[in-house]
Amino acid sequence: GTSQADCAVLIVAAGTGEFEAGISKNGQTREHALLAFTLGVKQLIVGVNKMDSSEPPYSEARYEEIKKEVSSYIKKIGYNPAAVAFVPISGWHGDNMLEASTNMPWFKGWKIERKDGNAEGKTLIDALDAILPPTRPTEKPLRLPLQDVYKIGGIGTVPVGRVETGVLKPGTVVVFAPANITTEVKSVEMHHEALVEAVPGDNVGFNVKNVSVKELRR
């Protein structure tokens, strides 16, 4: 699922001890940020959650401490902190989720700088709205690296993978490398639903004629 995402929202807890556990050597905060970057999710938003349970509640100092620490870590991974929106929130009370919170008057909003255009806002929903939709290279030739090949009873051979460039649709004649096998695509499915066409970013399974699973093994 993550490999299909265009943006990740990293939620870190502001509670005493909670943030420290997440950012520790084997903590989930580190693991999730690294996973997102490794899987090619280039845009990131950081929600500093549970601001209502920081010491004292809604503490600016605690938020700044967390922001500094997370910025330094995500920079090491490969994200540019200047392009990452940090938002202090409370999911439980709704602070800065959809509307600017009155509990954190010190928070003047988030600002991000990126070559495709800068953005600013007050809330988490603003940050989500500022995500840049990637261009889908549909006009290029079809390329679809195979993740796996299944044999499904009553259907036949079903290769599975993510469309990187081009368009895949029923009736398309495709060539598999390195075996150099040419065949026609009978049907294309994503999440168990038939597709008229699959575009870059789609993780799909497609049924091919007269090709055995063995022939397509890497």
TrEMBL record:
One of its GO terms (molecular function) is translation elongation factor activity. Gene3D superfamilies: P-loop containing nucleotide triphosphate hydrolases, Translation factors. Pfam families: GTP_EFTU, GTP_EFTU_D2. One of its GO terms (cellular component) is cytoplasm. Residues 1-138 form the Tr-type G domain. SUPFAM superfamilies: P-loop containing nucleoside triphosphate hydrolases, Translation proteins. It is found in: Cytoplasm. Keywords: Cytoplasm, Elongation factor, GTP-binding, Nucleotide-binding, Phosphoprotein, Protein biosynthesis. Coiled coil: none annotated. InterPro entries: EFTu-like_2, P-loop_NTPase, T_Tr_GTP-bd_dom, TRAFAC_GTPase_members, Transl_B-barrel_sf. CDD domains: EF1_alpha_II (cd03693). This is Elongation factor 1 alpha. It comes from Ravinia derelicta.
